[in-house]
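Might I ask for a little of your time on a matter of protein folding? The record follows directly beneath this note:
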Amino acid sequence: MWPNRRNNVTLEIMSDNPKVIMPTDEEDAAINRGIAADPDTYEVPAEDFKKLKPLGQRGRPRSESPKVLVSIRYDADIVESFRSTGDGWQMRMNNAPREWLKSHAIV
């Protein structure tokens, strides 16, 4: 049982994962005493808690033209030629067909 002090409600939290060992009531009480004694922590008042907003989307921003994942096999010498050019070789390999398409009509 995990007490929710903000609302004076006790929540029953169970885990279906057999590897998760939930604390006993005594252990839970000791954990809560430790939290209460920690000067670096505090409980957020209910009014302030209601004002909190989600952080928003995390990670890299979505691209307007996302890449498409495909599986393709190149000859080893082609890949090695691009790799030997150093950092950014994958981008250059991506741009090579684009350059080719500029001078060749696809029917």
Observations:
- DSSP finds four helices and two strands in the chain.
- The chain has a mean pLDDT of 84.
- Strands lie at 2-4, 9-11.
- The longest strand covers residues 2-4.
